[in-house]
Design goal:
The protein is of the alpha/beta class. It has one domain: Flavodoxin domain (Rossmann fold, 3-Layer(aba) Sandwich). Strands 1, 2, 3, 4, 5 and 6 form a six-stranded mixed sheet that branches. The longest helix is centred in the middle third of the chain and has 16 residues. It is globular and about 50 Å long. The two termini are 18 Å apart.
Length: 165
């Protein structure tokens, strides 16, 4: 199967998750490519799609929401999975699914959606983002659970495998 992993990542952390998912899909014999959502227009060549976005202010990035709106018809025809990356901390904060993701998933018939903890490096942020992070006391560090990410990708790969005859 040829799988597109379309990603919206502001500082690269969500892109690293997408790259890890692609590695797992390739290890299972799929052809998987990671592309930025802003650079992806045609989905005709893909058999399945995984969409991932960083979460800021409790929402997917605007380019991710625009991508789903633009590609809604084609995405509804394909097997699609969604992942979000954002909350930080040993006890993920903020908790709960990003605003609007359930509606996006329903609109395109996504098979599954998952929320992964993310990474926060305040040194990589601009002034305004650093002020916001300080104000809300967001925990800094890399909280991504690579085992959970790889297991989720393996589950997708298993569902893409042809049925045994």
């Amino acid at each position: 199967m040829k799988v597109l992993i379309a990603v919206a990542s502001r500082h690269g952390s969500t892109r690293e998750i997408a790259d890890t998912i692609a590695e797992e899909l390739r290890a299972s014999g799929n052809v998987a490519g990671v592309r930025d959502m802003t650079a992806t227009e045609c989905l005709a060549e893909y058999d399945a799609v995984i969409l991932g976005s960083a979460v800021y202010a409790g929402q997917w990035l605007p380019e991710a929401r625009r991508f789903v709106a633009r590609q809604r018809e084609r995405l509804a025809e394909l097997p699609v999975w969604l992942f979000s990356s954002g909350p930080t901390g040993v006890v993920p904060w903020p908790s709960g699914e990003p605003e609007g993701v359930a509606e996006l998933a329903e609109a395109i018939g996504a098979r599954e959606r998952v929320l992964f903890t993310g990474k926060l490096n305040t040194q990589a942020l601009g002034f305004v983002d650093r002020v916001v992070v300080q104000a809300i006391h967001a925990p800094e560090g890399d909280f991504r659970d690579w085992s959970a990410i790889r297991n989720w990708a393996r589950g997708i790969a298993a569902s893409l495998a042809p049925a045994a005859i």
